[in-house]
Backbone:
């Protein structure tokens, strides 16, 4: 049968199956191949907190969505064009998101009575006509996979486990992707178990050839490479970028890197990555708890390291007292909070932006801490680097905010050359003459003196310090002076960060103000709104304490300011308090990122009023 | 003795050089003064430049210690001295890191960090100032206060069984465990010196009198009349003898220790346990005398066995990683994996 080829600007595919089905693995492989192919892309892994949730259940469904395009991509896509459903539960959970008339590739072998019952289907949706509005492609993925690997003498379990690569093969055919990159990955991943590598390669190819020869696919799609800015690219997740960012800061400052950390979802990959950079002299310390992790880092900062601690919301709450200590002793420290759904244990694997208050307003006493936030997976590199720069220059702890969506999501990253990165000032004072531990430079930073420096022995601690001498002081006027001095030191950082930049008209009817991981969804929404003739401007914040110093003035140039956030309105609250502005909150707390269409519709609704 | 500083000059240091310019603010008569004095007295003998020495503390009366030492110092937050010191020593193995802590700070709020430092064996000295009470918060029972202790927060008596810091430390895998008392300066100096000399986490418990909130808690062990019969000073290779004329000894009957008299005609010195500081089993038995009726409370080095240092193994892994992968190259790492060029 002759198959037609349709050229698309962009496409969105979602892989869904049991949490043990390897959906994250094939999603990542599809991502890697598409990136290498030259598409711009954005991904959204969505998986349960349980490592291997009971098979076939609705809550055990793991999904991975990718949008890839020949144009710029800002988000993982609102609605998939293709849903790969490895079992009934995966279909049930994901069908509601599928595009109207979208394609379902279902593993019909898994649609047996037991699984249908677990998913709550009374009849088999593959046969009962309920999917009539979609393009349904039933494939016996389990049997076909077993057939493909039958000569290799695998156990039934090992043979079955290759079925994710069979499904991947089908999607590679459908979107005209090359197989080589995935084959190389399999060969290197299973270099010690060549039979498993071979079996997965066979499954991948069998899936691909199934698309080629089966009579059920009438159309094949092409998504051409995107025209991205010149440079060398790689695909990168937020956590990986964050780890590289802090490592780069260590090398550009000449300060040895020390990470104290306690494993926590979704931040642990940062610890894993840095633990593998020992040949850079990086020291990683898996502490007994969150408090020990940050305290060890503070000890390392006292010793002259670039000190870093990584965590997520609940761990952040535990670290607050120690962050206060770092504020009091004025040592550089970077604290990464990879936010997740809260409060308490909340939704460990889901995304949320509800720790902004905790970052800006946490801790006892008047305790100002600079806060930065990454706006995309790749941006985690630069904002982590920025956090380190601010920490060293101003002798202060700095909080870096990311979230589960950025941490695990991936996008192409134009890799900076080491020489393009600025030098970070991290100088130690060794001049004894005129030295006092709490004297100030022009940035209000105190000098950093490492133990081991002769003649400059001094004591620091959490008790209030006398101005200049750093001796313990209970003097009431000195306390107020020091509280104001610490606040002024942080506020003054506004003179050393970029101004807020408005994209679009510099004044007008409506401005969308975002921060952190909503960047992609807001950008996509704005592109669509402009195409429809709605004139919308936007500002995206990467510096949240202090804010860019022109922010209040910029916001006042617009009649409406819409603030979309994955919380109940924390930035909105601060905008109202800081600038007396009646901003319009737009909030979502479902553990999921915004869809561009949600923001688009909200703007249209506002402008039609 | 002349000590060479890191910038090459020779200086002769004395105890006075280790006193900072800050007024000591402990209550007059506090046992902490003795600990401060003994530490300052032994410091010059270590032949370590003053600037290489760091005292780290948490919160409590004892934790003001760093302010009174003219070395580098860090008065951190409640319970976390061991964590701060761990990070400092790992980042800077060249420094001589000390931890000053109290029974509340080290064993209650900081209990977790304490046991983990001991099992990791990072080369630091932990000085526990055990006065069996909360002093700075004005007199509540502590994790080492005896059951039934009447305090402001336990007017009808504490319901808690106390920790024995020695068995706790041994149970956590400590590699050096010793005990001394504030009223025996010579013994304390000896214990501090031995703890410092040891390569690994050294734990020294000091019975320290709080003359305001728990006065006389250790009188039985510190006063001339009662000390001989209620304490046993142990030394490696020497028999466990006590009493006014060392007429009493301790022997083992199976796993059970028994007090014997060398004057009753039934026992000789050969029946008495000879202390072996390399035996964790024996150390555990001796440590428990503290809580056993009629048994003397042990002082001295109970256990001392060197094992690999955490920080040295950490450095070693870095050396091995560099040998295997080559010195880290950021440019190479940034451009690692699958990359593609857009022209």
Residues:
């Amino acid at each position: 049968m002759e198959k037609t080829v349709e050229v698309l600007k962009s496409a969105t595919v979602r892989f869904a199956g049991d949490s043990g089905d390897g959906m994250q693995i094939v999603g990542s492989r599809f991502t890697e191949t598409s990136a290498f192919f030259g598409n711009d892309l954005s991904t959204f892994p969505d998986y349960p907190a349980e490592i291997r949730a009971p098979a076939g259940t609705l809550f055990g469904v793991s999904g991975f969505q990718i949008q890839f395009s020949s144009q710029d991509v800002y988000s993982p896509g609102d609605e998939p064009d293709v849903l790969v459903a490895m079992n009934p539960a995966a279909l049930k959970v994901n069908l509601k998101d599928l595009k109207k008339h979208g394609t379902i590739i279902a593993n019909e072998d898994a649609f047996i009575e037991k699984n249908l019952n677990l998913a709550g289907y009374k009849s088999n949706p593959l046969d009962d006509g309920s999917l009539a509005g979609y393009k349904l492609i039933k494939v016996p993925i389990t049997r076909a996979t077993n057939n493909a690997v039958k000569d290799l003498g695998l156990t039934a379990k090992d043979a079955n486990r290759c079925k994710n690569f069979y499904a991947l093969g089908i999607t590679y055919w459908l979107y005209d992707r090359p197989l080589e990159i995935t084959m190389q990955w399999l060969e290197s991943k299973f270099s010690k178990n060549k039979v498993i590598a071979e079996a997965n390669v066979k499954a991948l190819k069998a899936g691909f050839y199934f698309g080629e020869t089966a009579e059920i696919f009438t159309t094949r799609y092409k998504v051409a490479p995107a025209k991205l800015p010149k440079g060398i690219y790689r695909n990168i997740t937020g956590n990986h970028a964050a780890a590289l960012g802090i490592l780069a800061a260590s090398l550009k400052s000449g300060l040895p890197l020390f990470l104290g950390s306690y494993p926590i979802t979704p931040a642990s990959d940062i610890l894993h990555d840095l633990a593998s950079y020992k040949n850079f002299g990086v020291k990683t310390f898996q502490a007994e708890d969150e408090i020990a992790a940050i305290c060890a880092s503070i000890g390392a900062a006292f010793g002259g390291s670039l000190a870093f601690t990584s965590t997520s919301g609940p761990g952040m709450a535990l670290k607050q007292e120690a962050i206060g200590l770092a504020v009091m002793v004025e040592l550089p420290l970077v604290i990464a909070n990879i936010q997740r759904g809260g409060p308490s244990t909340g939704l460990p694997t889901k995304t949320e932006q509800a720790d902004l208050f905790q970052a800006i307003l946490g801790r006892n006493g008047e305790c100002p801490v600079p806060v930065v936030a990454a706006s995309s997976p790749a941006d985690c590199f630069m904002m982590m680097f920025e956090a380190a720069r601010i920490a060293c220059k101003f002798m202060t702890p700095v909080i870096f905010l990311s979230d589960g969506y950025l941490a695990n999501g991936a996008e192409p990253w134009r890799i900076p050359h080491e020489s393009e990165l600025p030098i970070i000032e991290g100088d130690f004072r060794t001049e004894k003459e005129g030295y006092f531990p709490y004297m100030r430079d022009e940035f209000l930073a105190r000098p950093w003196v490492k133990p081991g420096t002769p003649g400059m022995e001094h004591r620091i601690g959490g008790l209030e310090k006398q101005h200049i001498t750093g001796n313990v002081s209970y003097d009431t006027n000195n306390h107020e002076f020091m509280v104001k001095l610490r606040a002024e030191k942080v506020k003054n950082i506004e003179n050393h960060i970029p101004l807020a930049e408005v994209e679009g008209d510099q004044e007008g009817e409506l401005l969308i103000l975002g921060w952190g991981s909503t960047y992609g969804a807001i950008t996509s929404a704005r592109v669509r709104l402009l195409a429809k003739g709605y004139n919308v401007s936007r500002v995206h914040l990467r510096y949240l304490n202090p804010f860019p110093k022109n922010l209040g003035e910029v916001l006042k140039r617009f009649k409406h300011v819409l603030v979309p956030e994955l919380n109940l309105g924390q930035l909105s609250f601060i905008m109202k308090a800081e600038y007396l502005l009646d901003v319009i909150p737009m909030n979502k707390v479902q553990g999921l990122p915004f869809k561009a269409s949600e923001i688009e519709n909200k703007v249209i609704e506002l402008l039609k009023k | 003795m002349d000590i060479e500083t890191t910038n090459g000059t020779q200086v002769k240091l004395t105890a006075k050089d280790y006193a900072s310019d800050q007024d000591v603010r402990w209550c007059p008569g506090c046992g902490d003064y003795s600990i401060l004095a003994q530490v300052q007295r032994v410091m010059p003998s270590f032949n370590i430049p003053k600037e290489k020495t760091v005292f780290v503390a948490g919160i409590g009366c004892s934790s003001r210690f760093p302010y009174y030492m003219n070395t580098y110092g860090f008065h951190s937050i409640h319970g976390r001295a061991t964590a701060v010191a761990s990070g400092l020593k790992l980042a800077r193995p060249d420094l001589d890191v000390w931890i000053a802590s109290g029974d509340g700070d080290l064993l209650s709020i900081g209990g977790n960090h304490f046991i983990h430092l001991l099992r990791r064996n990072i080369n630091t000295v932990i000085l526990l100032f055990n006065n069996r009470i909360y002093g700075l918060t004005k007199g509540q029972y502590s994790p080492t206060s005896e059951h039934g202790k009447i305090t402001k927060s336990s007017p009808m008596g504490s319901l808690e069984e106390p920790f024995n810091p020695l068995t706790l430390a041994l149970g956590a895998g400590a590699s050096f465990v010793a005990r001394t008392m504030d009223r025996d300066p010579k013994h304390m100096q000896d214990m501090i010196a031995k703890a410092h000399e040891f390569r690994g986490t050294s734990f020294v418990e000091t019975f320290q009198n709080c003359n305001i909130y728990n006065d006389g808690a250790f009188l039985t062990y510190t006063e001339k009349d009662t000390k001989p019969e209620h304490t046993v000073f142990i030394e490696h290779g020497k028999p466990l003898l006590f009493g006014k004329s060392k007429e009493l000894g301790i022997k083992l009957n199976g796993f059970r220790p028994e007090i014997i008299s060398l004057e009753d005609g039934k026992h000789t010195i050969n029946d008495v346990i000879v202390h072996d500081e390399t035996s964790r089993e024996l150390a555990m038995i001796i440590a428990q005398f503290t809580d056993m009726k009629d048994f003397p409370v042990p002082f001295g080095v109970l256990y001392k066995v060197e094992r690999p240092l955490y920080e040295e193994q950490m450095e070693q892994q870095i050396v091995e990683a560099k040998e295997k992968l080559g010195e880290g190259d950021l440019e190479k790492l940034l451009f690692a994996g699958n990359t593609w060029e857009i022209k």
Notes: Chain B touches chain A through 65 residues (CB under 8 Å). The two ends of chain B are 70 Å apart (CA to CA).
